[in-house]
């Protein structure tokens, strides 16, 4: 430790920060810390867990997932947004069954029945807005 008359030089503790590496921009930004007590390490957002989860989700049919969906009336383009923890195809079948049997439990089916609109195939009228886990 260096000491001067009346002053003690205090060595500062090295701090580490982690940056997600996205390219040259990351290097340019981290140059700011070059002559400081801050050391930089680089990481990635592509962890083995995320890669396996993503691969697993892509092997499923889009209708086997659950989450937030939107149904569009094929006649007037009115939109109904819903959320389910069950597979989308199961929930669509519920709306379809309510329409088919004149049951107004489903707000989407109620709209179709009240306005005498038709229902279309699932691939045409259902859109996945966000995929989530069950629950």
Provide a concise account of the structure shown.
The chain has 135 residues and is an alpha+beta fold. It contains five helices and seven strands; from the N terminus they run βββαβαββαααβ.
Order of neighbouring strands in the sheet with most strands: 6-5-7
Percent of residues in helical segments? Answer: 25-40%
Radius of gyration: 28 Å
* Low-pLDDT residue intervals, each spanning 5 or more residues: 54-58
Q: What would CATH call the class of the domain at 63-132?
A: Alpha Beta
Distance between the termini: 59 Å
Q: What is the overall silhouette?
A: rod-shaped
Order of helices and strands, N to C? EEEHEHEEHHHE
Strand percentage: 25-35%
């Amino acid at each position: 430790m260096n000491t001067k008359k009346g002053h003690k030089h205090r060595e500062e503790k090295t701090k580490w920060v982690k940056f997600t590496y996205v390219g040259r921009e990351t290097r340019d930004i981290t140059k700011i810390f070059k002559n400081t007590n801050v050391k930089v390490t680089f990481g990635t957002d592509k962890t083995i867990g995320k890669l396996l989860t993503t691969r697993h989700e892509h092997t499923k049919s889009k209708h086997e997932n659950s989450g937030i969906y939107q149904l569009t009336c094929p006649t007037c383009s009115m939109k109904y947004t819903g959320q389910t923890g069950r597979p989308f195809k199961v929930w669509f079948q519920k709306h379809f069954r309510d329409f088919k049997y004149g049951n107004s439990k489903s707000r989407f089916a109620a709209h179709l029945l009240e306005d005498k609109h038709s229902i279309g195939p699932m691939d045409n009228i259902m859109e996945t807005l966000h995929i989530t886990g069950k629950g």
